[in-house]
Amino acid sequence: MGLDSAGKSTLLARLLTGQVMETSPTIGFNVGTLDLDKKTSLTVWDVGGQKSMRANWRYYLDDCKALVFVVDSSDPSRLPEAQKVLKKVLNDEKLREVPLMVLANKKDLPNSMTIREISKQLDLHSCVDRLWEVQACSALKGLGLQQAFMSVNKLIKKS
User: Fold this and answer.
1) Which residues are catalytic?
2) Is 9 annotated as a binding residue?
3) Looking at residue 149, what DSSP letter applies?
4) Most CB atoms closer than 10 Å: which of 41, 90, 111, 122?
5) Mind listing the pLDDT tens digit for each residue in 13-71?
6) CA 30 to CA 1: how far, in whole Å?
7) Which SUPFAM superfamilies is this protein grouped with (predicted)?
8) Is the pTM of this model over 0.85?
9) Are strands 67-72 and 29-35 parallel, antiparallel or unpaired?
């Protein structure tokens, strides 16, 4: 999940195909299975992030094992909005003990924010009852994606 234009669809396509694909705003969702190793795979849902879609996010939380929240690290002006919607989704009862991975996408762009700045802007340190992690990545370049989802798997195992 994440705001519109954070790079969720590009990230999922890159993870699943290794390619950069032309994407358009997601209406509804995309879903795919990511094989981490011979024994482990994750079903990854990419849910539309436009304001009009966010009310539907709660319908995708059943049996959720980890929440991956994607932010555009090159756009600090949208982080207050991202913080607000992240807090709202984390307050859902279905996510009570579900770990959180924040992916600071677009780290390849000049002036992208550090993971420390993003953690602070999203107020992640207030998430005391939840395992969470922040990782920088670039869906476009494919940087950090495999590592991030290996970490997601570790968070799931720990929780």
Assistant:
1) 50
2) yes
3) H
4) 122
5) 999 999 888 888 898 889 999 999 899 999 999 999 999 999 999 999 999 999 999 99
6) 11
7) P-loop containing nucleoside triphosphate hydrolases
8) yes
9) unpaired
